[in-house]
Structures are given as C-alpha cells and as structure tokens.
Design brief:
Elements (H helix, E strand, L loop, with lengths): L1 H35 L20 H21 L7 H23 L3 H31 L12 H25 L13
C-alpha cells in the first residue's frame, strides 16, 4: 500500500503537475498573444493571432492600425484636462477597429480578388496613421482646445479638425513671434 501511494505521489509530482503547468502556461501565453493582437485593447479583434508577425499585406495593415491607435491613445493622455484629444482618440480608435474588421474580411478573399481591395484599405489606414500622427504632434505642441468641425466621414472630419487646430497653432506662433514672445521648447512653437 505504501509503495502504491509513493508511486502515485511521484506520478502526480513529476508528470501531472508539470503537464498541468505547461497547459496553463500555454493558455496564458495564447490569451496574452490575442490581447496584444487587438487594435483596441477594449475590443476583441477578428484578426488571427499569426498576424502579430506575418509579413503579408493584410497583417501589416492590421499592425499599422494597432500602432496608430497606440499613438492616438498616448496623445490623448498628454492633451491636458480640457483637451478634446481623448474624444478624438476614441473616435479614431472606433474607426480603426471598424477598418480592421474590413482588413480581416478582405484577407479572406482569394488572392487575385484581394489585391485591389487591400490597396484601397491601405489608403484608409494611411489616413488613420496621419490623424494619429497629427494628434501626437498637437499633444506635444500644446494643451489647447480643438474646435469642433461638422463633416464627412469620421476619419475625414477628424483630420479636418486636426488640420484646423494645427493651422491655429501656427497662427498663434506667428503672432507671438511678431510680438517678441520666445518659446522655451521647440515643440511648443507652431512649427
């Protein structure tokens, strides 16, 4: 009886527990990989986990959207207490998530049918990247409020609002320079 108990303990300690640890570790790694693969940390992504490192066009578009949202989220935290950058970043994030779903859908098309759609999506991804970049620059340049602009599609309206703010910052910089005001930081000036 003692021998059976000792063998059972050895089996559990040296076989079952390591297998269980590997299984749990694998599940945690898989979950972390899927979370890292999200365009928005708050929304599950339909993109396959392999897109974290795959070199094909759809995977690259997905990663570019992920990076743009990361930039926009970071800019939103630096915009100041009364800044509309958090709202703009949330708008951009929603658009990026929707665009990512389109990328996943197009990636499932046959290769020949996929190419023209991917080019159109690449143009839209570039618009998202430009908007995120503008948000980042504006967050560094100032903590000034953005003006609201009515408009076309959500990304286009966002880009117009950011363009208007950037133009206003340049005008303020010109007026300050004409008045002899010198900024301490090169990032604070209008460019």
């Amino acid at each position: 009886m003692d021998l059976v108990l000792v063998l059972l303990v050895i089996l559990v300690v040296f076989v079952v527990l390591p297998l269980l640890a590997v299984l749990v570790g694998g599940l945690l790694v898989r979950r972390n990989l899927h979370r890292r693969n999200r365009v928005s940390p708050d929304v599950r992504s339909p993109a396959p986990a392999s897109w974290v490192s795959r070199p094909d066009a759809a995977a690259r578009l997905h990663r570019r959207l992920r990076a743009a949202v990361t930039v926009a989220r970071h800019a939103a935290t630096r915009g100041g207490p009364s800044s509309p950058l958090p709202e703009l970043a949330a708008d951009l994030e929603r658009e990026a998530v929707a665009l990512d779903a389109d990328v996943v859908m197009v990636a499932r098309l046959p290769r020949a049918a996929r190419r023209p759609h991917l080019q159109a999506l690449a143009d839209r991804v570039q618009t998202v990247e430009r908007a995120a970049s503008q948000m980042s620059v504006l967050a560094v340049q100032s903590r000034a409020d953005l003006t609201t602009v009515g408009g076309q599609d959500a990304i286009g309206a966002l880009a117009e609002r950011l363009d208007a703010l950037e133009a206003a910052r340049h005008e303020v910089a010109r007026v300050e320079e004409a008045g002899g005001v010198r900024r301490a930081s090169p990032y604070a000036a209008g460019g």
